Amino acid sequence: MPFVDMFIDEPAASKVNRGMSTPIVWRGVFPASTTQLNEDQSLNLDATGVHLERLIESGVTGLVMCGSLGENQCLSTEEKVAVVEHAVKVSAGRVPVLSGVAEMSTRAGIEYIKKCEDVGASGVMVLPAMVYKADRRETLAHYRTIAKSTSLPILIYNNPVGYTVDITAEMLAELADLPNLQAIKESSADTSRIVDIRNAVGDRYAIFAGVDTLVMECALLGAVGWIAGVGLAFPEENQKIWDLIEAKRYDEAMEIYQWFMPLLRLDLGIHFVQKIKMAIAATGLGTEYVRAPRLMLTGAERAEVEAIIAHGLANRPDLTKYN
């Protein structure tokens, strides 16, 4: 029997589920953590752990390790497993720990997820298989096969801007019969997608905002969580925005959001990892070392990012006024 056919149930795959709901396992702020490195580009698990502790103290409700910001594709499988295992140890059950899954094939994704299970991960954030640009049928088969292979809850990551493959609301409806597909990180930069998903499947999936600069809009349209990026450098401010949104204190949330917006734009473009690591270094929460082929920023681009960070630091809001 072909490998994928071992998992796919074609009748189930063809069902469209409208108006369904499923218990929400995850909600709130799940920062997509960076992987802290030493100057020689080796893993710095101690520094990663210190940063994770600060994030947990700020009030986050989950951690995503080895995502795009975690430089997934530049780490070996053994390194990724070590990062996830260390995060599980640091969390000590206080918040769920997810790992990004961005392997080159469905089979490799399944094998990596089994390793995550072995070290105690609470779930996984699954991307389309990297490099190959799958079509609709292939993308559905990828997610169905992975979901059938594990009991871990899964957050689907849709980022057609960065990864070309688009997981539409209609495709999510086709996958809705798989109970461990729990959530979607929606990063298409089109906020109407949240409405499309809700029209297609109700509240079947927990929808997470995936674009920092659209988090308030996404929350107003029904997102119940935020896979945060720049908040890694400003965890208290990031968390306060989300808490105020959840409390429907929108005017107050907007005050912090306006201050945060120039910083949030650091999460855009091909150098988002370097930019966010620069912010993390500037706030004393880590270093800016990255794994090649990424290089630390230089010249005019570096000066521009430094100016944005410096302005943000000089004008940090007084969070005590929002208690």
Radius of gyration equals: 19 Å
Helix content: 40-55%
Alpha carbon gap, first and last residue: 60 Å
Secondary-structure content class: alpha/beta
Question: In what range is the share of β-strand residues?
Answer: 5-15%
Question: What is CATH's topology name?
Answer: TIM Barrel
- Main sheet specs: 8 strands, parallel
Task: Report on the architecture of this protein.
This protein has helices at residues 10-13, 45-58, 77-91, 106-118, 136-149, 160-163, 169-174, 192-201, 215-221, 235-246, 250-264, 272-282, 299-314, and strands at residues 28-29, 63-65, 97-101, 123-126, 154-158, 181-186, 206-209, 225-226. It is α/β, with parallel strands linked by helices and 323 residues long. It has one domain: TIM Barrel. The protein has an 8-stranded parallel sheet with strand order 1-8-7-6-5-4-3-2. It is globular. The relative contact order is 0.14. The model is unreliable at 10-19 (pLDDT under 50).
